[in-house]
Write a structure and sequence with these properties.
The protein has helices at residues 3-8, 78-100; strands at 16-19, 25-36, 39-46, 59-64, 71-74. It is an alpha+beta fold. It has a five-stranded antiparallel beta sheet.
Length: 101
């Protein structure tokens, strides 16, 4: 299944499994999908331990659509990652306000 189909499937509650550069599989919980600057980003929280990542931290990935199949890549540009988190917080706040009516 294509990663975009998985990310955009509102019914999907299964962990997203990715491989690191050492071919170790790591499971993630999907937090959000955020369109930003002509890319599709996602915020994923590791369910497995990753050195250097605290238990309460999440990682920003983007969907790389340049190859034959879509792939997730960690966003290495800290400014873009922070902007994606900021967009997430803004959308989250709007949703809370909307539900309060």
């Amino acid at each position: 299944m294509d990663i975009l189909d998985i990310l955009l499937d509102e019914e999907n509650c299964s962990p997203i499994t990715l491989c690191d550069e050492n071919h170790r599989t790591i499971n993630f919980e999907q937090v959000a999908v955020i369109p930003y600057k002509d890319k599709i980003y996602c915020i994923l929280k590791p369910l497995d331990h990753i050195d250097g990542v605290a238990d309460d931290e999440a990682i920003v990935f983007y969907v790389d659509e340049s190859g034959e199949k879509n792939e997730l890549r960690a966003e290495l540009n800290q400014m873009d990652a922070m902007c994606v988190f900021e967009e997430y917080y803004n959308l989250f706040e709007k949703e809370i306000l909307k539900r309060r009516g």
